[in-house]
Structures are given as C-alpha cells and as structure tokens.
Design brief:
The protein has 73 residues and is an all-alpha fold. The chain is 53% helix and 0% strand.
Length: 73
C-alpha cells in the first residue's frame, strides 16, 4: 500500500505523472475513509459534473467490483 493511502492527514498532496492511476488511487482512499468512518459524508468535486460522475465513480465502481469477489475471513 502506498504512503498516500496510509496517510491520515487532513490535507494530502499526491504528485503522479499522467495515466498512472491518480483517480483510481483517490477513489481507493475515499472508499477506505468511508468504510473506516461510517456515516461520514464525502464530497467529490470536478470542474464539470460529468467528470465527477463519469470518471471518479467509474474508478469507485471498479473498486467495489473487486471487493465483491473477496472472501471475508
């Protein structure tokens, strides 16, 4: 797991090159925060609504699909 995902600071900077999974990693962190703090509200912003809806939640959906196949012991 990357230090980015483990960092518990209120403000985290993530510097990555193009096409290296910034959105995917960001959604993983938001999903982790959501599970760790039930009842919390998470706001995803983007310059256009379609970007937040189509790009960010596509990555979120991929994470949830992968979790569906995991066995919980």
């Amino acid at each position: 797991m990357w230090p980015f995902l483990r960092d518990e600071g209120h403000f985290v900077a993530n510097l990555q090159a193009r096409q290296t999974g910034k959105t995917f990693n960001g959604m993983a962190k938001l999903l982790w925060i959501g599970f760790r703090y039930p009842g919390s509200e998470i706001l995803v912003t983007a310059p256009k609504f379609d970007q937040a809806k189509n790009v960010a939640f596509k990555a979120l959906g991929e994470h949830l699909e992968r979790m569906r196949g995991l066995e919980i012991t």
